[in-house]
Amino acid sequence: MPLSEHEQRLLEQIERALVDDDPKFASSVRTGDRRLKARRKLQLGALLVLVGLAVLVGGAVAPSVPLGVLGFLVMFGGAALGVLNYRSATGAVEAGPVGPAGGRGGSTASRGRGGKPRKQPLKNRLEERFRRRYDQ
Questions:
Q1: Is residue 67 part of a domain?
Q2: Is residue 16 situated within a structural domain?
Q3: CA-CA distance, 69 to 65, in Å (whole number)?
Q4: Host domain of residue 117
């Protein structure tokens, strides 16, 4: 939902006051779009996978075990970089536990440190599904 003109003006005033009050902190907070950085890392990971694959094939063609191992490590590093930045780059959201009202489980009791939802044990989830099935 976009901000109204009044809210945008207030936000700009707050930003200017922050920059005037503590410019060093303001520059460290103003990092830009996180998705853009994550997308660049995702692209770098894909590129590393391709380069690693080429080095791995090169190591297989010229029977060189160290070259093959190096290619595998580069490929593995690229894949890890891509996997670790996929969610941030695409904005994908993890499927969380479903509460009894059919919405996402968002109670403060089911949240751990930092406000992230805590995963319930398998036994509790199965019991809750069983109860929901027979309550209908």
A1: no
A2: no
A3: 6
A4: 98-136
Q: What would the two tokens of residue 106 be? A: 């968002």
Q: Looking at the 3D structure of the chain, how many domains does it have?
A: 1
Q: Which residue has the tokens 């920059």?
A: 19
Q: How far apart are the first and last CA of the chain?
A: 35
- Closest Cα partner for 70 from 56, 89, 82? 56
Q: Is residue 112 part of a domain?
A: yes
Q: What is the pLDDT of residues 96-108, one digit of tens each?
A: 455 444 444 444 4
Give 22's Cβ-side CA count (13 Å radius): 5
Q: Is residue 109 assigned to a domain?
A: yes
107-124: pLDDT as tens digits: 444 555 555 566 778 888
Q: Of 60, 55, 58, 80, which is closest to residue 70 (Cα–Cα)?
A: 55
Helix/strand/coil for 104: strand
* Structure tokens, 12: 């700009």
